[in-house]
TrEMBL record:
This is Protein kinase domain-containing protein. It holds the Pfam family Pkinase. It comes from Talaromyces stipitatus (strain ATCC 10500 / CBS 375.48 / QM 6759 / NRRL 1006) (Penicillium stipitatum). InterPro entries: IRE1/2-like, Kinase-like_dom_sf, Prot_kinase_dom. GO terms for cellular component: IRE1-TRAF2-ASK1 complex. GO terms for biological process: intrinsic apoptotic signaling pathway in response to endoplasmic reticulum stress; IRE1-mediated unfolded protein response. GO terms for molecular function: ATP binding; protein serine/threonine kinase activity; RNA endonuclease activity; unfolded protein binding. SUPFAM superfamilies: Protein kinase-like (PK-like). Residues 20-247 form the Protein kinase domain.
Length: 247
């Protein structure tokens, strides 16, 4: 049994976020089984895990069935690939089906983007399928995100970056899609210094009710539906970030 994910969980309290608990995801590799455990102790310096209190994660319910309308990732995979797998830290008892639906919804969005490519949208390669289940979503791998690019200290053409990011956002909107989580960690940079929008697990058809919310500080607070203004608000925050850090 080994720990494969761990994180301190914070909850909103007034105008601040306070520590609530620490969560662990453990894997029993021989059986391919996953479990989770929670404790009120902080993660550091160390947290003992009570094996007797481990709760199983029903992985069969977690991975959605592969739909024949979806694209399988190439086999073998290209060298510059990245496989996105959902974090099991989001799982709570009874929510496996919700996370399964989220994976399938993102795969369907990525299928739309694959059929309507854009230079500032991540290149999607297809689903990782095993035993009739979607085990991950495969994309071209990019070298760094926008924050890492800014922190290199190399000259950065803010106008070019902003025009490119806005072009990607408008392409999504033209397809009837709203990203809902535009932030510097969801903008990668290609080898040609081209900004590329990634991460579509919050992406919804325009007007749909939101499920997973955007990143605090970069998204409209308490937004309830997928609206174009969600992305343009985040874009304005990106613009401020670049102007503050790249002048």
């Amino acid at each position: 049994m080994e720990i494969c994910e761990q994180s301190e969980i914070f909850v909103e309290e007034g105008d601040d976020y306070v520590f609530d608990h620490t969560k662990f995801i453990l894997q029993e590799k021989e059986k391919g089984s996953y479990f989770y455990s929670e404790t009120k102790d902080r993660l550091y310096p160390s947290v003992p895990i009570d094996i007797n209190k481990l709760r199983p994660i029903p992985m069969r319910d977690f991975w959605p069935p592969f739909d024949r309308s979806l694209t399988r990732a190439p086999d073998p995979l290209p060298g510059n690939h990245y496989i996105k797998r959902p974090s099991l830290l989001y799982y709570r008892d009874g929510q496996a089906q919700d996370l399964s639906n989220q994976i399938l919804d993102e795969a369907k969005v990525c299928e739309i983007l694959r059929n309507n490519p854009h230079p500032n949208i991540a290149e999607y390669l297809g689903c990782i399928e095993k035993n009739g289940r979607i085990k991950g979503l495969c994309f071209v791998k990019y070298s760094m995100d926008l924050i890492q690019r800014v922190e290199t200290g190399r000259p950065l053409d803010s106008d070019y970056y902003l025009q490119s990011i806005e072009s990607g956002i408008r392409h999504l909107h033209a397809l009837g899609l709203i990203h809902n989580d535009i932030n510097p960690r969801n903008i990668m940079v290609g080898e040609d210094d081209r900004p590329i929008i990634i991460d579509f697990d919050s992406c919804k058809q325009e007007g749909e009710e939101l499920g997973k919310s955007g990143t605090p500080g970069w998204a409209i607070e308490n937004a309830q539906h997928a609206r174009q203004e969600n992305d343009f608000f985040s874009f304005c925050m990106i613009k401020k970030y670049l102007l503050d850090n790249c002048t």
